[in-house]
Amino acid sequence: MHDDELEFSGSKSPTVGIEIEFQLLDPDTLDLVDGILPLLRDHPEEPRIKPEFTQSTVEINSCVCADIEELRSDVTGLVKELKRRCEGLHFTLCGAGTHPFSLRPASVTPLPHYVEMEQRMVYLAHTLKTYALHVHVGMPSGDAAVVVMSQLKPYLPVLLALSASSPFWQGQDTGFASFRQRILAAMRDYGLPPSFTSWRQFAQCFENLRTAGAVHVVRDVHWDIRPSPHYGTLEVRVMDVQPTLRETFMLAALVQTLQVYLLRCWEQEKPVRPAMPQHWWAEKENCFRASHRGVEAEIIVDETGHVRPIKAFTRELLASLAETAEELRTKDWLDQLEARLDTGHSYLRQRAVFSETRSLQKVAASLVGELEAELISP
Length: 378
Fold this sequence. Notes:
The protein has 378 residues and is of the alpha+beta class. It has helices spanning 36-42, 68-88, 112-121, 142-152, 156-163, 179-184, 199-211, 245-268, 280-293, 310-320, 322-328, 331-339, 346-357, 360-376; strands at 16-25, 49-51, 57-61, 92-94, 132-138, 168-169, 172-173, 190-191, 222-223, 225-228, 233-240, 298-300, 307-309. Helix content is 45%, strand content 14%. The strands form 4 sheets. Strands 1, 2, 3, 4, 5, 10 and 11 form a 7-stranded antiparallel beta sheet that branches. It has a two-stranded antiparallel sheet with strand order 6-7. It has a two-stranded parallel sheet with strand order 8-9.
């Protein structure tokens, strides 16, 4: 198959990069605002500040970074610059998987790719007021990328639970920790990917989908985890955006460490620990449980249906990653993540604000305030 779209540009080292989809808000009402077009018009010279599917979204792309410390420096500077530009246009930034109370349908960004998506999705397109954190990790080959993708699928519920930050939707407490995941479940091309054993097998699947008119390019495939051949990465897409950059870097460190650990296990023919069931029904059930209960979920951990608290499973997973974390210099970030397991995750913090104030506007204000406080601190 000689197709530039399917040429995997392998990475010599496990680089890391992220994409963050921030909400654009009106600073007075704290409702979503269609601000991306004026933002891009005012500041067209920064290619790493980008539009997304809806006009109330601004995406930032990091550089390709060698480690999390380089990522932290790069992204913090870029977000500070974005915040300054937004304030000049009377917008404010917010990080969360959904907006707590916005009622109006999403406005689609009028770019050809997004207009075509809107035509395929019809009304569903206007429900996509969702905001994701994507983490890319460099993979040496297409074969490695799809094997690690298949091995990583059972661990996606952990990433989903740890990142859950979307309990409210259109003015309602949904009862879910990550309602964003449930909104995306309505779309035809989101969710868990198939498993592949080789790049050739993935490429054939993609070609079949393209022949059927279901996709044109690899980025039309919106799975929770997908290979990105142009970048030579495996991209995890299951996580909600975080209110703070510190939480973002913890999750990026976990994704990088987990992918490299799985890659080493495959290369050295070692078993993965802790083991997880690979049956599609268990993977799907576990993702639902994680989106519902977050870090309080119990997930299926073997082929006979036994369950364990996701917190205990996560601690065991972090212990398995210790050696890889030393290699990648991510140990401090993973230690912070483990310490945070028993404290307030974003969905719990949002609910606590609402319980105290009975105001979803105060919930939005707390999300804005968390990011602002972080960006102005030394």
